[in-house]
Amino acid sequence: MGFKSNARKKRQQSGADSSSKKSSEEFVGQVKCDVSGCKNWADKKVGGRKLAFDRAADVWGESGLSSDSRRVKICKSCYRTWKKAKKDEPTEWS
Ligand SMILES: [Zn+2]
Predict the structure, then answer these.
(1) How far away, in angstroms, is 24 Cα from ligand 1 center?
(2) What is the pLDDT of residue 86?
(3) Which residues are near ligand 1, the ion (C-beta closer than 5 Å)?
(4) The pLDDT of residue 11
(5) Assigned domain for 2 exists
(6) Each residue of 35-56: pLDDT tens digit?
(7) In which band, very low, low, confident or very high, does the pLDDT at 31 lie, cut at 50, 70 and 90?
(8) CA distance 94 to 43
């Protein structure tokens, strides 16, 4: 009995160690970035943000967003893009 379970354990170990070495490198989130073409995660954990659709559409256009809800979720790098684009825009034009 003891011998048998021992053997099974051994087999499991040797079978698993070939391709289970990438654990913390790749984050798997639940919220996808709504910028079309972007494959990043927009989870809060990884710096994702929510933007009002109109504000996001200012930068990517309505067709550049894969969501048409009033709030779009964008990833960290898209948020940076957005912020930058917004910065270039003159804010005080009175
Ligand atoms: Zn993105």
Answers:
(1) 20
(2) 87
(3) 33, 35, 38, 40, 75, 78
(4) 57
(5) no
(6) 999 999 999 999 999 999 999 9
(7) very high
(8) 37
Q: Which two tokens stand for residue 62?
A: 């309505």
Distance 21 CA to ligand 1 centre (A): 27
Token code pair at residue 93: 């034009």
- Rounded to the nearest angstrom, the distance between the alpha carbon of 44 and the centre of ligand 1 is 13
CB of 13 closer than 8 Å to CB of 5: no
Q: Give residue 45's domain range.
A: 30-89
Give 20 Cα–ligand 1 centroid separation in angstroms.
Answer: 28
**What φ, ψ does residue 49 adopt, rounded to 5°?**
-135, 160
Distance 35 CA to ligand 1 centre (A): 5
* Number of independent structural domains in the chain: 1
pTM (2 d.p.) = 0.66
Whether residue 18 is contained in a domain is answered as no
